[in-house]
Specification:
The complex is a heterodimer of chains A (253) and B (346). With 253 residues, chain A is of the alpha/beta class. Helices cover 37% and strands 24% of the residues of chain A. By secondary structure, chain B is mainly α. The chains are: A alpha/beta (253), B mainly alpha (346).
């Protein structure tokens, strides 16, 4: 579905992402992991055309730049790390904009189909009671769910998630990841997500891409990638020992 | 469960139009010579339909040839500038963005002044030279200001934009002063652009303003959904499939076109584009499908009333309209800035 070839992102003389290639097939959930500054979020930005890059991004074997913006949005949906809104739009207004790609024209009106996807998205994210609330009055977790609902209303085939549960409470983390896991059950879909938390990555991902300073350290099956011989040098510590010691604390009654 | 319609209903538009018309009649009637509202209405009604005006009504010429074109121009300018302000505040997701705070109006005024000082005209259309120069300078100013702002601070934060707008306006004023020094015989004419006044406007001006509002303003109104997306966030707009670069360019061209035309006819009238959308947003909410049309009517009403105050406050002396709008606008600007700062630092 999605193929990234020799992706390179530079800001001035600084190379953030260096020669990264990977591909995502139907039904896959690819976890992009790595320490701070490894270039994880930048990959999401570049693939979603929000940052200049060199190399190729192919969607169904066609270069992504050849798609019109609304055509691209019907295939790829993005959930940004943080969404800070300046104006008191209502939850409903933000979710409705998710249908933009299906009626990009000037005179287009909302169709029955639009309504169905919007209702579904609202139901999935449990935002029914907040619809007329201003997004300025929501908590961080609620706001992230609003943009997730917008994403579901957009109904893309590939989700790009940039630390979707960053700063969210444990309950929301669990809810969001379970929602996405459910979403992925429909055939013809795929997810790429940047995840900071290695335990979360392991719990939900099947494939992984381990980055170090913009370069790929390892990729493939998540259990092989998140192996101590790969992780320890990248994180400069004994990751397995650390994770186990943390787990030990919860073993005591 | 989901409301299909995000804009206003027909009856709401009729209501707005009615309110605007009432204020319009009031503003045409009141002035150095007061004409009863009923007579004003009769004069306008009869002349529109070509019915002779009854001789019992005094001074129809004041109404028809002086006040009517002026108030029409004032209404159209108020509507246009408010629409532009609303569009820029959405595009830049910044509630303090406006032609006057960004320096676009000053830029347009500089263009107009250069055209006057150096006698730049277009064959067959005597005032088109000023207008085209004003539009070009408005657009170039907008590009320069935004490029500078992007280079300094990619997120286009309020402070950066306002700071650059102030610096740019000062820079433009210095060039204006230079032009005034170089062409002193035209000074009186040039100061008019910097103060803003619609006192000498005629029906030709009104027609030009109306055409600009229909073309550029119509274009802006048709992009209400895209402006909603921008107002929520440019990155989000990109993700949901908005052609971010194209829409941004289109809005900027329309906005500078409309501001350029307004400035070339009425000079730079400050703060109206900042104040109207802000007040309107408090009532309608930030959705541009309502915000933009309501700003259109609200701006017309606001500027007509400001013009009325400018005419009657020191009667028979007349204030430049920019004095009234800037007076009200500056106070409101401080209030908005103060409250928004308090909110983010609470």
């Amino acid at each position: 579905m999605l193929e990234v070839k020799n992706l390179k992102v530079q800001y001035g003389n600084l190379t953030i992402v260096d020669d990264v290639s990977f591909s995502v097939k139907e039904g896959q959930w690819l976890m992009i992991v790595g320490p701070n500054g490894a270039g994880k979020s930048t990959i999401i930005k570049a693939v979603s055309q929000g940052a200049p890059y060199t190399g190729e991004v192919l969607l169904y074997n066609k270069n992504i730049v050849k798609y019109r913006p609304y055509e691209r949005a019907r295939i790829i949906g993005v959930l940004a790390q943080s969404n800070y809104v300046n104006y008191p739009f209502t939850v409903r207004e933000v979710i409705r904009l998710g249908r933009y790609a299906y009626a990009p024209g000037i005179f287009s009106r909302q169709s029955e189909e639009d309504e169905r996807y919007i209702s579904e998205a609202i139901e999935m994210t449990g935002l029914g009671t907040l619809l007329d609330k201003s997004v300025l009055n929501l908590s961080g977790g609620e706001l992230q769910r609003v943009f997730l609902a917008q994403l579901f209303a957009q109904n893309p085939r590939i989700l790009l998630l940039d630390e979707p549960t960053n700063h969210l409470d444990l309950l929301y983390q669990k809810q969001v990841f379970e929602l996405i896991q459910n979403w992925l059950k429909t055939p013809g879909r795929a997810v790429v997500s940047v995840v900071h938390d290695l335990s979360l990555a392991r719990a939900y991902g099947r494939q992984a891409l381990l980055l170090e300073k913009g370069k790929i350290k390892a990729s493939g099956d998540i259990n092989e990638v998140l192996d101590s011989k790969n992780l320890d040098p990248v994180y400069s510590m004994d990751v397995y020992a650390w994770m186990r010691s943390k787990l030990e604390q919860w073993r005591q009654e | 469960m989901i409301k299909k319609h995000e804009g206003f209903r027909i009856y709401e538009y009729v209501l707005f139009a009615g309110a605007t018309f009432l204020v319009f009649i009031l503003c045409v009637s009141v002035g150095s010579v007061n004409v009863p509202l009923k007579d004003t209405f009769t004069i306008i009604w009869n002349s529109v339909w070509g019915i002779p005006i009854p001789e019992t009504i005094a001074s129809p010429s004041i109404i028809l040839s002086v006040r009517l074109p002026r108030v029409i121009c004032v209404a159209l300018t108020g509507a246009s500038l408010s629409l532009c302000g609303g569009a820029m505040q959405g595009l830049l997701r910044n509630p303090l963005a406006d032609g006057s705070t960004l320096g676009v109006s000053s830029g347009a005024a500089l263009g107009a002044a250069i055209a006057i000082a150096f006698g730049i005209t277009m064959p067959s259309l005597p005032f088109a030279g000023t207008m085209v120069m004003a539009i070009i300078f408005a657009f170039v100013s907008l590009i320069v200001i935004l490029t500078l702002a992007y280079k300094m601070d990619f997120s286009l934060s309020t402070n950066t934009i306002i700071l650059i707008g102030v610096i740019y306006s000062m820079f433009v004023s210095s060039i204006l002063a230079l032009i005034i020094t170089l062409a002193p015989e035209k000074v009186k004419h040039i100061t008019f652009w910097t103060m803003g006044s619609l006192s000498g406007s005629n029906f030709d001006n009104a027609l030009v303003l109306l055409s600009a509002l229909v073309i550029f303003g119509g274009g802006i109104l048709l992009h209400a959904r895209e402006l909603n997306a921008f107002a929520i966030g440019e990155e989000n707009a990109l993700h949901i499939g908005v052609n971010v670069k194209r829409v941004k360019l289109i809005i900027m061209i329309f906005v500078s076109g409309l501001i350029g035309v307004c400035v070339s006819i009425g000079g730079s009238i400050g703060f109206i584009g900042l104040v109207t959308p802000h007040i309107v947003r408090m009532i309608t909410g930030p959705n541009h499908k309502k915000l933009l049309p309501a700003s259109l009517f609200g701006g017309a009403i606001f500027l007509m009333l400001a013009d009325l105050v400018a005419r009657i406050l020191l009667n028979p002396l007349e204030l430049p309209i920019g004095v009234v709008t800037s007076f009200v606008g500056a106070i409101l600007f401080v209030y908005i800035f103060y409250t928004s700062r308090r909110k983010t630092h609470a």
